[in-house]
Amino acid sequence: MVTTEERLELVGGVWAYQDRLATAFNEISVLEQMGEEGWELTGFGPLVLSFRRPEDAALRTRWTYERQQGRFTQKLRQELEGAGWLYVGSWMGTYHYFKRPA
Question: For FRET with 46, which of 18, 27, 31, 61 sits at 20 to 30 Å CA-CA?
């Protein structure tokens, strides 16, 4: 399978980047909205989610996100990756973010 990064490189495409404010009250809805619009989660920090997507709409992919809460184990990571999820990272050792193309 050719990744978005590989397709972008082949056609000389450019990434657009966007940070969004996110709190415990709106984080899931922000992830859902951004994923529907083709924004890929690339990182996060205090009150912020960072995204990117190709500027060329024809190269965009919709994304689905999964947030796991609690203790992070290799077993959990292997189960999710086995189901097609890509690990993005963990925040404060409590919240663990995964993504996959929708």
Answer: 61
> What number of other Cβ atoms are within 10 A of residue 28's Cβ?
12
- Angle value at C-alpha 45, between 24 and 56, nearest 5 degrees: 100
Token pair for 14:
């450019």
Dist. CA 77–CA 54, nearest whole Å: 28
Question: SS3 for 76?
Answer: helix
Domain boundaries of the chain, sorted by first residue = 14-101
The structure's pTM equals: 0.85
Output b/e per residue, 64-97; b: 16+ Cβ within 10 A. Answer: ebeebeeeeeeeebeebeeeebeebeeeeeebbb
DSSP string, 20-59: EE--TTTHHHHHHHHHHTTPEEEEEETTEEEEEEESSGGG
* Confidence tier at 2 by pLDDT (50, 70, 90): low
